[in-house]
């Protein structure tokens, strides 16, 4: 009984705090989404890479942020903030709730069967990783409809629309259900779950291998975790990109229609198109964003300010 009383119970206040924590960094997340869906309003410029080679680059994310500010002011940098707060709060609450349930299940098993003090490290690693995967994926599933609403609010910047509200989820629910039915609330869910699951699995596995077989120094465990997370996120980033595009695809806003975006049948089509056009890393970098022509659904290449037709 004493052990159970010490457990952290999920609360609405702590979950809301986690959601509000997104506010200071929200403009950067917003700009990243606009880049992910291929909106490049600023022209590329010629410069030299770190290796001295002349290349064309897109302006960095802070220049992009200044552009959005010049168009819509400070409020424009927070399009979709309300949906982001709700999404993160719901995800945190579900994540904490599932963790508590899983802990209680483990306690019941241990009360029947005495735990081996010398339990194999790999078995402990598998249990901890499985627990994290389960809790995180359930959080993603329950919060995903609000995640979709938030991304579509952001994408409205491209067409200057107001179909989706940044603060009224009931208006957004009606808008999505009217246009796409129930499935619209879960657009992009599968690649998002794959992204979360593969990132957790890769991060945990890499950290486990380094800590146990390469450098067994507890003092740098935090650095190892950070390094593992950076590597994993870099590898799994294409799934995050595919999810963002899939969440917006299928809606009635300008950003989801030709010539801004191709019409995709599924998230697999999104992945194939990005792979064929060498765009799977689009939006992954905030600086030194190498210019790559984005193929337009109309048969040319989008430069952000227009379309350049092929000469052949």
UniProtKB/TrEMBL annotation:
Database matches in InterPro entries: MCP_dom_sf, MCP_transmembrane
Source organism per UniProt: Brachionus plicatilis
Membrane topology: Multi-pass membrane protein
Key words of the record: Membrane, Mitochondrion, Mitochondrion outer membrane, Repeat, Transmembrane, Transmembrane helix, Transport
Ranges for the Solcar repeats: 6-105, 123-213
UniProt cross-references to Gene3D superfamilies, sorted A to Z: Mitochondrial carrier domain
Main location: mitochondrion
Keyword Cytoplasm: no
Record's protein name: Mitochondrial carrier-like protein
SUPFAM superfamilies: Mitochondrial carrier
The keyword Mitochondrion belongs to this UniProt entry's keyword annotation: yes
Cellular compartments per GO CC: mitochondrial outer membrane
Subcellular location: Mitochondrion outer membrane
Pfam families named in the record: Mito_carr
Similarity comment text for this entry: Belongs to the mitochondrial carrier (TC 2.A.29) family.
Span of the signal peptide: none
